[in-house]
Amino acid sequence: MSEKKKTLLLLMVAVATFVDGLDGSIVSIILPSISTDFGVDTSTVSWISTVYFLLVAGFMFIFGKLSDMGHIKKVFVSGLIIFTTGSLFCGLSLNFTMLIISRSIQAIGASMLASSALMLCVIHLPMKILNFAVSVVVLGSASGFAAGPAIGGVLTSMQSWHWTFIINVPIGIILTFIALYTIPKDKASNEKFDIVGAILLLISLTLGLYVLQTIPSNTISTSIAVITISSLLTFVWFIIHCKRTTEPIINLDLFNCINLNAAIIVCLLMNACYMGMQYIIPFYSEKMFGFNPIISGLYLSIPAVITLPMCIFVGKISDKLNERRLFTFIGCVVMLMEMILMLTVKENSERWPLVIALILMGIQFGIAGGPVGARIIYNTPEKLRNTGSAITSFVAYFGSAFGIAVFSGAFKFGAGSIVGFQELTIPNFMNGLYSSMFIGIIISFISLLLTSIKDKD
After folding, report:
1. pTM of the shown model
2. Which of 12, 133, 285, 402 can bridge 291 by disulfide, Cβ–Cβ 3.0-4.6 Å?
3. 318 C-beta neighbours (distance < 10 Å), count
4. Structural domains in the chain, sorted by start
């Protein structure tokens, strides 16, 4: 590969991960507008975010394995095409159902990009610049996530929320042509792919999250009971399948280690609380203070602006001290402080509790974002480190989907209403907020308890 193509490949991957990060966070700021336009309640509209993170996580093992088997160019280029198509139809959506279907298509494309982007650098770039390449990819994703709320706020206020999706279309088209030109041809292997295990895992997770999000505001009906049992039985089937398959999608031997299990759960719960707050705060900002999307977006950018420089500094210290659990514990304490602070706000509260909570969110992931993920890799047996890396990415995306599902379900339960966001009274909204924060406090305490389990020697 020529130097020109290497440069183009790195630039292409950085932009692709930027757009993926952007679409992970940009939607949080436009949920109130979508809720108003389509007349859906605050819990239902959260599926726009939940379905995205769920499908990105659920398909990650599938596309990651296909990429590892030598189909990486097909996966990445197809991901760009599917992501761009999904973005176009999201922007053209005329009703909520069309938006959810289009968002699902977009998420599948995003999963293909997320599972293959970093691997492209590992396979096609020289080792001497690999650390630089990885840093560029990580920075691209983090910058996109940081810029999402602000960009979403500007586009929604100046045009409409539809443009937060349509903006991806020209970028996706350009990247597709660059990918076709720069990425060398695939060299597929004869390795078997566990498609059955991947499908069983996706079905089980999807059904489980649906129950978590819908049951707080509904009686336990026959349909809910059937879905719950189906989720559990599918998960049991998945475990049995993995034990009987020679090359399963996930090696279950990983989970014989209590240190690794604890690290995975803490990582999942921290991502859950962070995205749960990302879901709640735009509604709180608009209902309590009348913020327009631009102002809400700027406020919601505070955590990422703090996290970016802080995580680099803490990462170096963590590596130097060879200490991850302490920083994870501190992050969990800060997370608990966020939830308690938001639990104390009143109808007539000033803006400063919101600002402090956003600052604490930034500090939480600035301190623990790197170490909490590194603990998973560190506690994974050395021969299975590649799988540990995939699990870390999966946990981050699935934790985000889990958090939005749990927080929105708790909000709906506390608010006691299924009316649209604009019709929701302030007292009912506050009850929903308190219910969500109470769940956040429980999750934070569980995380703190699990950090007491030491990393392996």
Report:
1. 0.79
2. 285
3. 20
4. 1-191 (1.20.1250.20), 195-248 (no CATH), 252-457 (1.20.1250.20)
